[in-house]
Write a structure and sequence with these properties.
The chain is an alpha+beta fold. The protein has 4 helices and 8 strands. Strands 1, 2, 3, 4, 5, 6, 7 and 8 form an 8-stranded antiparallel beta sheet that branches.
Length: about 140
């Protein structure tokens, strides 16, 4: 097992179409984990969510969250990012990032389709400011 450098974990997180698993805390203290499409934008993890989702409600109340991105194939690797989230309903930004995410996860030929589908009123852009990062590669070697 070897710790990843910042350059390594950023490349790992953005390679392919690995989903992130976002953990937030519900109002009653229970954890809530959801797979998300995400991208890195400088010091932020960026994703979208609907304004009335459990994620959005939890992040409005408590902006701290953790994102885990992992490789589910041996020898296994993972990145865990802790941070604080901000939410925006700026529709131009929501559409722009929904299009970026659609291209990443569904292919560039479908980016516009997913931008139009997910970049609508009611959707929010979430920026999780990267705080603490724990990242290891070749966990089982």
């Amino acid at each position: 097992m070897e710790r990843m450098s910042e350059a390594q974990w950023r490349e790992f997180a953005m390679s392919g179409t690995k989903t992130g698993k976002l953990a937030v805390t519900r109002e009653d203290g229970r954890p809530h984990v959801t797979p998300i499409w995400f991208a890195l934008d400088g010091d932020d993890v960026v994703f979208t969510t609907y304004g009335s989702s459990v994620k959005a409600r939890a992040l409005r109340r408590e902006p701290r969250a953790t994102l885990c991105v992992d490789d589910q194939h041996p020898p296994y690797s993972y990145v865990m990012i802790e941070g604080e989230a901000t939410l925006s309903d700026d529709l131009d930004e929501v559409r722009r990032w929904a299009t970026v995410l659609g291209g990443r996860y569904m292919g560039e030929d479908r980016a516009g389709e997913f931008g139009a589908r997910n970049g609508v009123p009611g959707e929010l852009l979430v920026r999780l400011r990267i705080g603490k990062v724990v990242a290891f590669k070749d966990v089982a070697s």
